[in-house]
Structures
1.
Amino acid sequence: MAPSNESHKTFATVGIVVTLTLYLIRRRFRGATCKSLALMQGKTVIITGANTGIGRETALSLAVREARVILACRDVQKGENAAKYIRKNTPDGEVVVKKLDLASMKSIREFAEDIIKAEKRLDVLINNAGIFQPPLQHTEDGFELQFGVNHLGHFLLTNLLLDSLKQTEMSRIVIVSSSLHKRGRINFDDLNSEKHYHKGEAYNNSKLANVMFARELHRRLAGSNVSVYCLHPGVVNTNLGRYFPWWLHIIFTPLKWLFFKTATQGAQTTIQCAVAGELTGVSGHYYGNCKEEPWDKAALDDDAAKKLWEVSEQMTKL
Ligand SMILES: NC(=O)c1ccc[n+]([C@@H]2O[C@H](COP(=O)([O-])OP(=O)(O)OC[C@H]3O[C@@H](n4cnc5c(N)ncnc54)[C@H](OP(=O)(O)O)[C@@H]3O)[C@@H](O)[C@H]2O)c1
């Protein structure tokens, strides 16, 4: 028996309602867009981990704004592929790839030396690279990988580049943390996870270390021309979950489509902190969805932040 006109109508109505609901859910989760039209002609920006995800989309937006964008990547070939993608999408800006492995203090020092020698100015440093919940692994210098890359690597890099940032008028340091820092804890008795390793806890702790670093850096730079911005990008569909098992990726695929930001959407708060004119000189705040958010109480332990700085200095032999 052929379906009646009535069942066609019901089918069409259900289809429209479902499509509209999915569209509204996706819209709800895409987050805010950076509204700033600021150009960055003559400005130089470094973005760590810029070969993919949030870093690559940030680099594209800054190239569109005519910046000289240095993609600081551990795999130069992946960096060149990202540079090709950016050049294909915009003829503007100047895109340069340089080798930086944040899991190696030697690599960080070589990178910083090269920047100090080769670059006349450094307007924005974006500490974006990150690693999420790998099984227990160590950096070249023996640090637990997440603490080593997410915190210590960026701590050393930033400090080595501070003079260049100070020599450039109104420069910025943008630190990409995560809202998961709210579940973190800085355990000074076992910073390097030698007694106990839990991959989720180690990520949260490394992101809390990012936040404490941002606050202490801001305190130390008070009265200087360098401003510090800390942010969480939201939940973003990138390669960050690369250590999840394959079956979890399959379960997550429809959820990612519905509830996760795209990498372009996830890059918006970073872009806002890097370029927005109204944020010039506005240092020491935390951002999400392109606007200021309050620091979580986990971030407010300034004594722990000072101690973490001192311990990080010793660990990185700064
Ligand atoms: N995605 C999210 O939902 C989310 C949420 C909150 C916070 N975040 C933060 O956002 C930042 C960017 O993450 P994403 O989502 O764009 O992830 P992603 O797609 O995995 O990108 C991470 C980048 O970091 C690089 N990286 C990893 N280890 C490195 C090392 N040792 N040296 C240099 N670079 C290294 C990666 O290089 P390879 O490609 O060579 O591995 C990659 O370019 C991270 O700090 C992350 O913690 C992301």
2.
Amino acid sequence: MDVRQISEEVTARTKVDTTARDVEKVISCLSSSSHFWEIVCNAQKPFSVVAEIINALWERGFVSIEPNGEIAITQKGQEFIKEVSIAPRRDFTCPSCDGRGIAMDKIREWMQKFDELTVDRPKAIADYDQGYITTPTVMARVALMAERGDLEGKRLLVLGDDDLLSLAAAITKMPREIVVLEIDERLVDYINDRAQKLNLPVKAFKYDFRDSLPDQFVGSFDTFNTDPPETMEALEVCMTRGLSALSGEGCAGYFGLTRTESSLKKWNEFQQMLLSKFRVAITDIIDNFNHYVNWDYLLGSIRDDYSFIQVKPRLNWYRSSMYRIETVSGFGRIENKPMPCELYVDEEALIYKPEKTLTKA
Ligand SMILES: [Fe+2]
């Protein structure tokens, strides 16, 4: 048996290009964890790819699936791992900042304030593919913006805000003004209500980013923040809206991109699109910066054909890399027109059931 054979099988089943190295990486993660969601988190490969690799290993008797869904390497598997010398995954992540590079002690007070302010926040729902980031993440993200000079005295646009980053940013009293454009009315009302009660410079409006950006917001912000759905189309629409809102050169955009729902092939396509279509430079990609709170609808919205998948996650496994882009000289007007598109479902998406497809009529 060789890993290449498995990678070819997995490519055929998932329609996502999978290499022999990908298979080795998943085996390496299996050597350090038996919990599916931890393996997905560490392997940094699309969800369906990890699932099919584990299944292929099970078919060959290299792993066994325990009744509780835990994945164990068998004697046969151990011998194989030794034979091809795959080392267990090692972890050297800084435990005090979780690898974000932000001194958490300096933002502790804001984190506490944010938790108090948002204690009754709306729950994440499947309709808009929601899942929000943890409090340390949202506050570290705000701190990163401040550190890069993109927050203090600036106008910030938040495109989609189930993370409530607008309120997190407002707590610091740094931004001059914050505008939220959000499709979910529950969130629009919630953000406006909190902002009004605490007299924060935040205004939220209902908006579907497939519609063109309203005129009053075009070219009027210093910074945008978003967490796009990860089909190529949605990524392009999101970048178009965010960048249309920026006022000129030297402005910045912040967003997360996962490895769980986006293969490196998609990263490559996305980065090419970003650099060829827009006058921007990618200044930062911080691996695993964004950690998401586990959402209630996960197990009901994903495939249920493998028992090791239908296991409640025991860690905040869903993570994304923090991107920062900056507009460079020559940055100008971007075509701002309606862009109908598939937002949530492609081969690499977590949600795969056809009835969950949420294309606008
Ligand atoms: Fe650190």
